[in-house]
Design goal:
- The protein is of the alpha+beta class.
- The protein has three domains: 10-86, no CATH class; 125-231, Butyryl-CoA Dehydrogenase, subunit A, domain 2; 258-371, Butyryl-CoA Dehydrogenase, subunit A, domain 3, CATH 1.20.140.
- It contains eleven helices and eight strands.
- The chain has helices at 10-24, 36-51, 70-80, 91-104, 107-119, 233-250, 263-274, 280-308, 315-339, 351-368, 373-384, and strands spanning 124-127, 143-147, 150-157, 168-174, 185-191, 197-202, 211-221, 226-227.
- The strands form two sheets. A four-stranded mixed β-sheet has the order 1-4-5-8.
- β6 (197-202) and β7 (211-221) form a beta hairpin.
- The chain is globular and about 70 Å long.
- The chain starts with 9 loop residues before the first helix and ends in a 25-residue tail after the last helix.
Length: 409
């Protein structure tokens, strides 16, 4: 396929996208995001998308993108809507890590990684949460100590999605314990196969193991692995977290997927096939799912337009992330109501029961990813509604002196 041009009409571009999807993608889904087969499928798909000049539509051309407009991206998203594309393993890299490198990375880091990320040659994860610092990311204890021009990292991360199949990750570590906790952090690019990195998958209630704990034992990082400035990693982390919430809540990352996966349409299909439409209470609950999904889609369009116009994601991403988590749980609960007893026990060929029970079991973990609902509500209250901040007695205390997290617990 010829490389698109910003001068090409949206209708002409849309026709190109429609033709490409018809030739390259089936209308049915593939393996789950946790399997290595799914990762290889995602790599192949993304490479084909890249080679077809349809990856990174709004990314700068010097980093493998197409340099096109928001209107092109929206047209692409609409044409991709009917297809289930295998891009979930790439969401963290393209939706969270790449925007951070674009904003905070060095020219060398951007040249080295961005085009390879966009083509699917590199899969990335982010390494923030720790056993003693989940919601309080700034309370992390993983240390990075200078060794000449290089750094040596020791510590542990947890709940790291996709670490077991990732090539690189963005690591947040403490480099100065003698200043308040938000001021002594540094972000690094880490090779997930470097000596001293140990990855252990964690079994979840769904039966899957997409999360991991990651151990760092004397891991050596070169001096040019620093993203942003030394001891200024909190600013880089906020960039990642804001893009994470946009990716989770607003379908970011330029992957062309509709937010929410079309829960209402799937639920309405189950209701039609299983006789649920005759129940007025279930019809009303279906309608409430439709309203939530539609409102979230409209908010997501607004957020994506802001991101693609070069504006840093704000609290709207947190609002969308919160709304998305609530929608996912609500839809799963309605799905189980439609299934009735079939949601407790089912035959192996009952795809409806498997989908909605998995959705309900996975809802709590998905709600936590990218920040708990409680944190999202705090951000909503403080940054949207203008309510006073929660009291924070540790903000001006050197990390080393904190009773929890700083070594005095």
């Amino acid at each position: 396929m010829a490389q698109p041009s910003a001068d090409e009409s949206i209708d002409g571009f849309r026709a190109r996208v429609r033709t490409w999807f018809a030739e390259h993608v089936e209308l049915t889904g593939g393996a789950g995001a946790e399997s290595f087969d799914a990762v290889e499928s995602a790599r192949r798909f993304q490479a084909a998308l890249f080679d077809g000049h349809l990856a990174g539509l709004t990314w700068p051309a010097e980093y493998g993108g197409q340099g096109l407009t928001t209107a092109h991206q929206l047209a692409f998203n609409e044409e991709a809507e009917p297809y289930v594309v295998p891009t979930m393993p790439l969401l963290i890299g393209l939706g969270m890590c790449a925007p951070t490198l674009l904003e905070k990375g060095t020219p060398e880091q951007r040249d080295r990684h961005l085009a390879r990320m966009l083509r699917g040659d590199e899969v990335w994860c982010q390494l923030f949460s720790e056993p003693g610092a989940g919601s309080d990311v700034a309370g992390l204890r993983t240390r990075a100590v200078r060794d000449g021009e290089d750094w040596v990292v020791n510590g542990q991360k947890v709940w790291t999605s996709g670490a077991h199949y990732s090539d690189f990750g963005l690591l947040l570590a403490r480099t100065n314990p003698d200043v308040p906790k938000h001021l002594g952090l540094t972000m690094f690019v880490v090779d997930m196969r470097a000596p001293g990195v140990t990855i252990r998958p964690l079994r979840q209630i769904t039966g899957g193991s997409g999360f991991n704990e990651v151990f760092f034992d004397d891991v050596h990082l070169p001096g040019d692995a620093v993203v942003g400035d030394v001891d200024r990693g909190w600013q880089a982390a906020v960039t990642t977290l804001m893009n994470e919430r946009v990716s989770i809540g607003a379908g970011g990352g330029g992957l062309g997927r509709r937010l929410g996966g079309g829960e209402f349409a799937a639920l309405a299909d189950v209701a039609r096939r299983r006789g649920g439409l005759a129940d007025p209470v279930l019809r009303q609950r279906l309608a409430s799912v439709f309203v939530e999904e539609r409102l979230l889609e409209l908010l997501s369009q607004r957020i994506r337009a802001d991101v693609q116009a070069g504006r840093t994601p704000g609290p709207q991403g947190s609002v969308a992330k919160l709304a998305g988590a609530q929608l996912a749980r609500h839809a799963a609960e309605v799905g189980l109501d439609l299934l009735g007893a079939g949601g407790a026990a089912w035959t192996p060929d009952d795809a409806d029961a498997e989908r909605w029970t998995q959705a309900l079991l996975g809802a709590p973990g998905n709600a936590i990813a990218g920040g708990t609902p409680e944190i999202m509500k705090n951000i909503l209250g403080e940054r949207v509604l203008g309510l006073p901040r929660e009291p924070a007695v540790d903000r001006d205390v050197p990390f080393r002196e904190l009773r929890v997290g700083g070594g005095r617990s």
